[in-house]
From TrEMBL:
Keywords: Exocytosis, Protein transport, Transport
Family matches, as PANTHER family: EXOCYST COMPLEX COMPONENT 7, EXOCYST COMPLEX PROTEIN EXO70
Function of the molecule: Component of the exocyst complex involved in the docking of exocytic vesicles with fusion sites on the plasma membrane.
Family: Belongs to the EXO70 family.
InterPro entries, sorted: Cullin_repeat-like_dom_sf, Exo70, Exo70_C
Protein name from the UniProt record: Exocyst complex component 7
Length: 699
């Protein structure tokens, strides 16, 4: 019972509590609803007030914005009006500046350029806005005048520093480069840095304003400087040399050139001068020998003059040598001057215009060099036409050195106008073709040699010595001549068959073979003019021996062996054949002293018959006459080579003395005559002494 009551009381308590909570919640909901309605009323009121504010402020804002835009437009209009007014006033404002001009005694460059820029802007304005305006003409005239003065100032600055380089300085510069030292010698300053910066500012403004006259001005002024430098060098070379090669060699500024090139080292003029002096010495010896012959009647056995290779001395060899040296020096000097100008042009002239301007700078100097080259080639061709091949050799050292210079030259002009490189290539082409023609015409001259006069003593023909001398001089230019010959299809075809490691040596070897083969044919043909078979053999012996010895004492043999491995064997065989032909001249004499046909009764000791005595007398008389005639004739023969001369004498003794000794022993003691001294004139040792005096004009 109590439990039920407690439970009922508990439930009733909870019910009362929940009712109280429900009543509180209802009350709070009512308050929340009232607050919501109040906020809604406030928001509606704010919205109404905001709407009224927008309606009031927006027109004011718009009006303010329009006023600001109007103000900005007015400001811009005023600025534009000021600019326009300044365009109309610029002529009068800058006229005094333009009249004074830039530079010394004038206006500072920056101020002057500023004035020109103002004129440029005014000109552009009037062209676009009012092309019919009178003011446009005023501005344009003043602008052109100012631009012209700026161009003049550019030229004035260039002219101020247009002093050509002194010859001694230029020679020292190129000589220093040729020493091969790592340190480079700084060339003289052409234009000071501050003046160069001044020129750069002017050039930049002129180019930006389409006034490119300064490009031509720069090219002509610097070109004139380069040309004058080259001309002064040429005049210096002529004055120092005094018309003689020795003057160049003795110049303190001129050291050996091209010592570090691709081919063998060469001192200026040394080898060619040696040959030139040798030729002069030969001429002096010829003259002296002729004088000796006239005064004594004796023949020294000298060589006779030939129509080609060695003309009468008139100083032409030295002139050509001098011309070659001067030309090479000028070419190297031009290259050095081009390098200096190429360095100077950077910065002053825009890169896009540098090739054209550089071509203008070097045009006259290159034309001069080309003309000089053409003159050398022209004279070389004249020498070729008159068969003066010793003089035409000047072409090869020039071609050699220019080919050595070509890589450096091409690096210098690689970014320049192609005409510059084309001119250099034209020089090489002319020299190449002339050298090729000289080599071929030399062989043709041997084939068609018209000189019929032969040395009366059978000595070495001057044609032979000149040919050897010519070939020896070619050795200095093996690589150059190899390149020239390689262009000939015939030589190229023969070269393929040789399979040589050094093509240039092989090609020159082929040329040497061709020359010597033709020389041999020519000499054999000429020798047919001799009526004396012995003299003909001596002539052939001398020439073959001279060629062989000349080959052996020089590098010619090394090259000849490449093209003809058996060349030495050929000459040795030829010498033996000619010795055999010469020995036949003793045939008639030997017929008198043969013992095989001796009278039988003499062999058995019987008394001589008259017929037998007559035969013995005839043999001794015939022998005496023959040995005297042969001695008289062959004393006048000439064999310049001592070894060959002694060899021929030894062969003569071996051929004659044993037979004559047997003949003498057999008949000298026989009573075949009452006057033995009339017939027995020579003992065997005396015959040997007679033979020893052969080939000796003084014996």
């Amino acid at each position: 019972m109590n439990i039920i009551e407690e439970r009922t009381f508990e439930i009733t308590s909870k019910l009362e509590k929940e009712k109280a909570n429900l009543s509180l919640l209802t009350e709070r909901l009512q308050k929340s609803s009232q607050i919501t309605k109040g906020i809604d009323t406030i928001l509606n009121t704010f919205e109404e007030r905001l709407s009224r504010l927008q309606d009031t402020i927006l027109p004011v804002y718009n009006d303010t914005e329009n006023l600001q835009k109007s103000q900005q437009n007015i400001d811009r209009t005023l600025v534009l009006l000021d600019n326009v007014i300044s365009y109309y006033n610029v002529s009068s404002e800058v006229e005094s500046v333009i009249e004074k001009g830039p530079g010394e005694g004038g206006i500072e460059l920056e101020e002057y350029l500023h004035s020109l820029n103002r004129l440029a802007k005014a000109q552009n304005y009037f062209i676009k806005q009012n092309p019919q305006s009178v003011e446009l003409e005023n501005v344009r005239t003043l602008f052109d005048k100012g631009s012209d003065k700026l161009n003049s100032e550019f030229k004035t600055i260039l002219d101020k520093y247009n002093t050509p380089m002194l010859p001694v300085v230029l020679l020292d510069l190129i000589n220093f480069d040729d020493t091969g030292t790592k340190d480079s010698k700084t060339p003289p300053v052409q234009i000071p840095e501050h003046s160069k910066a001044y020129l750069i500012k002017i050039a930049t403004w002129l180019l930006d304003n389409n006034r490119d006259e300064y490009l031509t001005v720069y090219g002509k002024v610097r070109g004139a400087v380069l040309q004058r430098s080259l001309t002064m060098l040429r005049n210096h070379q002529k004055s120092v040399s005094g018309g003689s090669v020795h003057g160049v060699a003795s110049s303190p500024m001129l050291r050996p050139k091209f010592q570090n090139r691709h081919e063998a080292t060469r001192k200026p003029s040394t080898r060619r001068l040696h040959h030139a002096l040798e030729r002069k010495a030969n001429r002096m010896f010829l003259k002296a020998s002729q004088t000796f012959e006239h005064s004594t009647g004796l023949n020294l056995g000298t060589r006779r003059a030939s129509s080609h290779l060695d003309p009468s001395y008139n100083g032409e060899e030295y002139d050509n040598e001098q011309e070659m040296e001067n030309y090479l020096i000028c070419v190297v000097a031009l290259h050095k001057l081009m390098q200096i100008e190429q360095s100077l042009i950077k910065g002053i002239i825009a890169p896009t215009h540098q090739p054209r301007v550089f071509e203008l700078i070097v045009r006259e100097a290159m034309d001069t060099i080309v003309q000089d080259g053409e003159n050398i080639v022209s004279r070389a061709k004249k020498c070729i036409s008159r068969h003066d091949f010793g003089t035409v050799l000047v072409v090869f050292p020039i071609l050699k050195q220019l080919r050595a210079l070509k890589p450096e030259f091409e690096r210098t002009v690689e970014e320049c106008d192609l005409n510059v490189k084309a001119k250099f290539d034209a020089i090489l082409g002319m020299l190449h073709s002339t050298g090729s023609k000289a080599l071929e015409d030399f062989i043709e001259s041997l084939r068609s040699d018209s000189v019929t006069q032969l040395p009366s003593d059978g000595t070495v023909h001057e044609l032979t010595s000149n040919v050897i001398m010519f070939l020896e001089q070619l050795l200095d230019y093996t690589d150059t001549i190899g390149i020239v010959l390689a262009q000939d299809a015939n030589y190229a075809k023969q070269l393929e068959r040789l399979k040589a490691s050094d093509h240039n040596k092989a090609l020159l070897g082929l040329y040497i073979k061709k020359v010597l083969v033709q020389l041999n044919h020519t000499l054999l043909s000429k020798s047919e003019q001799y009526g004396d078979a012995a003299l003909k053999a001596i002539f052939r012996l001398n020439n073959n021996n001279y060629v062989l010895k000349s080959l052996q004492r020089s590098s010619l043999l090394e090259l000849y062996l490449i093209s003809e491995p058996k060349c030495e064997e050929y000459y040795y065989n030829s010498i033996q054949e000619h010795k055999k032909a010469y020995s036949q001249s003793w045939g008639k004499l030997l017929n008198y002293i043969w013992c095989d046909d001796s009278p039988i009764n003499l062999l058995h000791g019987d008394k001589l018959r008259d017929k037998d005595r007559a035969i013995i007398k005839e043999k001794f008389a015939g022998f005496n006459k023959e040995i005297e005639d042969i001695a008289k004739v062959q004393r006048g023969y000439s064999i310049p080579d001592v070894e060959l001369r002694e060899s021929i004498k030894r062969d003569n003794k071996e051929l004659v003395i044993p037979k004559y000794n047997a003949f003498y022993n057999m008949y000298a003691g026989v009573q075949f005559t009452k006057n033995p001294e009339k017939y027995i004139k020579h003992k065997p040792d005396e015959v040997s002494a007679v033979i020893d005096r052969f080939f000796d004009v003084a014996a």
